[in-house]
C-alpha cells in the first residue's frame, strides 16, 4: 500500500511478511552497519519461536484466519516471558539461561516496538516485559584453563586440521564465524611490529575490521594444514581461498564448524569435560583467550577489550570478574603458619 492512502503500508501484510520486513529493515544509511546474515538468522530463529509460542497459547478459533500478532495481549507477553524462564523442554532442561532469555527478549521487544510504531498493533506490548538483569555470578562458567587447552592441542598434535582449528581459536580469541569466513589473502606481515609480526584481518560484528595477531606456531600449523588440503601455503595477498576448508576444499559453514569443534573435543573423552557446564564450544576459547591474557598474564582489560572487539568494557569484565576477585582477594596476604597452634 502507498503511505499516501488512508491505510498504512503494512495493513495487508501477513505475520511472516512482517517478520521478513523487520529483519531486513535498514536502520543505518551506512549499509555495513545494518544486520549481517548471521544476525538475521538469529532474529528469524527467535521471532519464529515467539510466534509459534503465541500460536500455541491462542485458541484455534481465535487464531483461525487471523493474524496472531494482532491478537496478542499483555497476558500473552507475560506467559511468553514465564515460559522462557520456567518452561519444560524435551531435553529435560527447565527454562533458558538468563543470558539467552535476555537475548531473545531483546529481539522480540524490538519487533513488537516496531509493530507498534507502524501502527500494526494498538498497544505497546514491548513495554510489558520485565527487566532481565544478568549478574556475573549467573553467567555459565565457560572457563578453559591453559593446561586444559594444552591437553587438547597435545591430543591433536598429529592431526593437522584439528590442531590448526583449536590453536586458532585459543590464540586469537576470534569468533567461529570470523574464522570460517577468513581467507588466506587476509593474512599479512606487519614489519613495524617487533621486527615483523603476522596478523589476520577479519570482519567482526558490525562489519568492523579486526586484526588478530598470529603467533609463528599458529602460522606453521596453518601452513601444514594447507599442505594437507593441497592448497598454497605461502602468504599471498591475491589468494582468496578460505583458510579453513573441508576435504572437498569447500568453506565451512560456521554452524557446521562450531559443531565440528564440539565433536572433536568430546572425542578426547578427557575426565575434566564431565565437570564443565555444557559442551565445550568454540566460544569457550574466546573466554580462555581473555582469561589467560587478563588473569594469567596481567594484560590491561581495556587493551584486551579492544583486541577481542567488545563494544563495552563491561562485557570483557564479565569474562574475568570472578577470577580477578579471587586473585585480588586480600585474604591471600595471610600466612597459614601464623595461625597454626603448636
UniProtKB/TrEMBL annotation:
GO biological process, one term: DNA integration
Tyr recombinase domain mapped to chain residues: 139-334
SUPFAM superfamilies in UniProt: DNA breaking-rejoining enzymes
Keywords, sorted A to Z: DNA recombination, DNA-binding
Classification of source organism: Bacteria, Bacillati, Bacillota, Bacilli, Bacillales
Molecular function GO labels: DNA binding
Superkingdom of this protein's organism: Bacteria
The family this protein is said to belong to: Belongs to the 'phage' integrase family.
InterPro entries per record: CB, DNA_brk_join_enz, Integrase-like_cat_sf, Integrase_catalytic, Integrase_recombinase_N, Tyrosine_recombinase_XerCD
Pfam families: Phage_integrase
Protein name from the UniProt record: Tyrosine-type recombinase/integrase
PROSITE patterns: CB, TYR_RECOMBINASE
Start and end residues of each Core-binding (CB) domain: 1-116
Amino acid at each position: 500500500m502507498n503511505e499516501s492512502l488512508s491505510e498504512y503500508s503494512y495493513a495487508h501484510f501477513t505475520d511472516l511478511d512482517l517478520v521478513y520486513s523487520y529483519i531486513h529493515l535498514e536502520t543505518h544509511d551506512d549499509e555495513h552497519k545494518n544486520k549481517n546474515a548471521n544476525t538475521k538468522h538469529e532474529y528469524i530463529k527467535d521471532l519464529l519461536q515467539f510466534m509459534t509460542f503465541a500460536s500455541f497459547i491462542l485458541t484455534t478459533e481465535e487464531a483461525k484466519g487471523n493474524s496472531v500478532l494482532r491478537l496478542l495481549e499483555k497476558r500473552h507477553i507475560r506467559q511468553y516471558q514465564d515460559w522462557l524462564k520456567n518452561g519444560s523442554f524435551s531435553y529435560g532442561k527447565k527454562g533458558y539461561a538468563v543470558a539467552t532469555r535476555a537475548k531473545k527478549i531483546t529481539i522480540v521487544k524490538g519487533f513488537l516496538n516496531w509493530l507498534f510504531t507502524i501502527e500494526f498493533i494498538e498497544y505497546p506490548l514491548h513495554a510489558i516485559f520485565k527487566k532481565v538483569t544478568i549478574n556475573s555470578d549467573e553467567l555459565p562458567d565457560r572457563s578453559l584453563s591453559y593446561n586444559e587447552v594444552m591437553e587438547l592441542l597435545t591430543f591433536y598434535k598429529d592431526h593437522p586440521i584439528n590442531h590448526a582449528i583449536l590453536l586458532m581459536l585459543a590464540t586469537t580469541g576470534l569468533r567461529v564465524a570470523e574464522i570460517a569466513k577468513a581467507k588466506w589473502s587476509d593474512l599479512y606481515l606487519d614489519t613495524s611490529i617487533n621486527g615483523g609480526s603476522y596478523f589476520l584481518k577479519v570482519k567482526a560484528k558490525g562489519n568492523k575490521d579486526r586484526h588478530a595477531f598470529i603467533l609463528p606456531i599458529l602460522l606453521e600449523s596453518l601452513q601444514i594444514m594447507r599442505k594437507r588440503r593441497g592448497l598454497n601455503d605461502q602468504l599471498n595477498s591475491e589468494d582468496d581461498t578460505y583458510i579453513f576448508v573441508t576435504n572437498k576444499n569447500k568453506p565451512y559453514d560456521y554452524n557446521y564448524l562450531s559443531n565440528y569443534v564440539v565433536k572433536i573435543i568430546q572425542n578426547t573423552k578427557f575426565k575434566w569435560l564431565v565437570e564443565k557446564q555444557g559442551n565445550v564450544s568454540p566460544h569457550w576459547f574466546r573466554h580462555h583467550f581473555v582469561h589467560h591474557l587478563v588473569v594469567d598474564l596481567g594484560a590491561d582489560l581495556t587493551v584486551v577489550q579492544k583486541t577481542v572487539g567488545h563494544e563495552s568494557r563491561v562485557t570483557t569484565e564479565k569474562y574475568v570478574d570472578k577470577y580477578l576477585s579471587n586473585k585480588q582477594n586480600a585474604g591471600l596476604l595471610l600466612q597459614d603458619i601464623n595461625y597454626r597452634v603448636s
